[in-house]
Amino acid sequence: MKIKFSWLIYFLVVFVPFEILLLKFLPVSDVVYGYLRFLAEVLIYSLAGILLIRVLESGKLPKGTSIDKPLLIFIGYALLITLINKAPVLEAFVGLRSLLRYLPLFYVMAFVSIEHGMVKKYFNLLLVIAAFQGLVTFYQHYVGISDFWYPRASDLEIGGKQVSFRLLSTGFGGGREQGAGIGTFGDSVPLALFMVIAFVMLFSALQSEMRFGRNKKLLLNVLAVIILLTIFFTYSRGSVLIAILTMPLLMFLAGKRKKMAILFVVSAIALSPFLINMIVLSQGQDPYINPKLKYTDPLTNVLAIFNDDYVDNTLQFSRGLVLTQIGGQLLETNNIIGYSPAQDFALEKAASKMFGSNTPINNLPVINDVYWVAFVIYYGFLGLAIFLYILYLIFKASMLVYKKSPDPYFKIIALAMAVLVVISIPYSMILRTFLFRSYGFYFWMMAGLVFAEWKRIRSATSSESELQTTT
After folding, report:
1. What 3-state DSSP class applies to 307?
2. pTM for the full predicted model
3. Residue 219, SS3 per DSSP
4. Whose CA is closest to 105, among 464, 412, 471, 449?
5. Which terminus of the chain has a lower count of CB atoms within 10 Å, N or C?
6. Smallest Cα–Cα separation from 203: which of 446, 419, 427, 424?
């Protein structure tokens, strides 16, 4: 049974990035195709169900994790505010599920004994997939994206809610930047999120104490450059900045602060003339050009954040507006408990309370991208505090595993997990990180691996303490 669990997870690691293409060409109706998009989740829930049956048959509850109680409190709290606000229960369930849908995967990884050798296989497989995504993205940028790479267009109604798998509409307020690669994910944002996770994992390996051969270390460094360039080619400015941030953060948490300082000084000296020149040029009178309407090279796209016109635009129409105005009004309204995970209901209620009228929620779609603002609307500041506490416990467990685990690959994953927790805070100010499959799946999978090792370390420490007490 252990081997079956391990290899089914191995299959899911491969399936999630290639899901769009694997399902697109199946000769099935739109309805069947729509439901097949939930295949990964069905497999995960099936594994969780098998695990639960095994626990019930054994008649003995396994030792839990440090986030079990806070998670139960958070779920109970979400249900309570749904009842208090008289929100639609089914819609609230869908909203809560979108945030925690990969939680069963966390428990599968945490409670099933995954062999240490499989952890190495997961690590290597993730890097191979990332390398392939990079090559595909380069091809798409320079050659173009044919219909082969686009997701299958279909509409499916589930629980009275329309679910669309079409690409976003084109235009100033939506769509994809010209030249942006989508890999095999069907869109550029899921690709960027996945590549950030892969980059964190790879850079964590480069900071580890593992001794790689010269050729392998060179290969890993080249792959790191490929992955970072791929993130540039997704045209996700925030993802580029987050990926760059992970490098000093990884060095800091790995205890390599001297190396971090040297790298910072050298990089600052080498890049400052180039950056200053680009910033000065970008702050000229030339207006900001939306890359969704006209091609812009990946570097210029990132440097647009220094353009005054771009800043004014985001403060008036985009994430800056949500953060400064809507976020500010949430502070003023003192939204302690939130309006429930029923997203449409909560947005309508928040809009009515903040703007004095029933503002149509389709005028506020960007709220979900500034996810912590949306999170406060749904769950309130109390719910945000509980969720951040859960993330803190994951970070704490990750650092323990990084320091105590004898297995080098568990140490790599633990360090990467600690960094992912930290960067999720700023990352979720610009993207719905936890709601995307390409981020949520790997985030909770890695967290589960960390807690599997965390439990082994605590059990070994407890046994050692008992032995010392006995002697």
Report:
1. coil
2. 0.89
3. helix
4. 449
5. C
6. 419
Show the tokens assigned to 300: 């210029």
The amino acid occupying position 37 is R
Beta-bridge mates of residue 162: 157
C-beta separation of 292 from 175 below 8 A: yes
What average pLDDT does the segment 371-387 reach? 93
**What angle, 0 to 180 degrees and rounded to 10, lies between the N-to-C axes of helices 371-404 and 343-355?**
120
> Which residues, 6 or more positions from 129, have their beta carbon under 8 angstroms from its beta carbon?
13, 14, 17, 198
Q: How far is CA 72 from CA 34, 92, 335, 396, 398, in A?
A: 31, 16, 22, 19, 21
pLDDT attached to residue 36: 87
**From CA 384, how far away is CA 166, in angstroms rounded?**
31
The answer for residues whose C-beta is within 8 angstroms of residue 373's C-beta and 6 or more apart is: 322, 323, 326, 327, 330, 367
List C-alpha distances in Å: 134 to 137, 183, 199, 278, 302.
5, 7, 11, 26, 18
Residues in a beta bridge with 155: 164
Question: Which residues 6+ apart lie within 8 Å of 130 measured at CB?
Answer: 194, 195, 198, 199, 202, 223, 227, 230
Percent of the chain as helix, strand, coil, to the nearest 5: 75, 0, 25
Q: What pLDDT digit, counting tens, does each position of 270-293 carry?
A: 666 666 665 565 555 566 777 787
**How many domains does the chain contain in total?**
1
Calculate the alpha carbon distances from 224 to 49, 130, 147, 198 in Å: 38, 10, 29, 9
User: Which domain, by its residues, includes 343?
Assistant: 2-470
Q: Which two tokens stand for residue 435?
A: 């709601």
pLDDT confidence of 45, banded at 50, 70, 90?
very high
**DSSP secondary structure, 58-126, as one string:** HT-PPP--TTHHHHHHHHHHHHHHHHHTT--HHHHHHHHHHHHTTHHHHHHHHHS---HHHHHHHHHHH
The pLDDT tens digits of the residues spanning 214-240 come to 888 899 999 999 999 999 999 999 999
Given a contact cutoff of 8 angstroms between Cβ atoms, the answer to whether 176 and 187 are in contact is yes
> In degrees to the nearest 10, what's the CA dihedral of 461, 462, 467, 469?
110
Question: 331 pLDDT band (50/70/90 cuts)?
Answer: low
Residue type, 191: L
Asked if 69 and 34 count as a contact pair (C-beta separation under 8 A), the reply is no
State the first-to-last Cα distance of the chain, in angstroms, to the nearest integer.
Answer: 37
CA distances from 176 to 171, 193, 206 (A): 9, 15, 33
The residue with tokens 């002697």 is 471
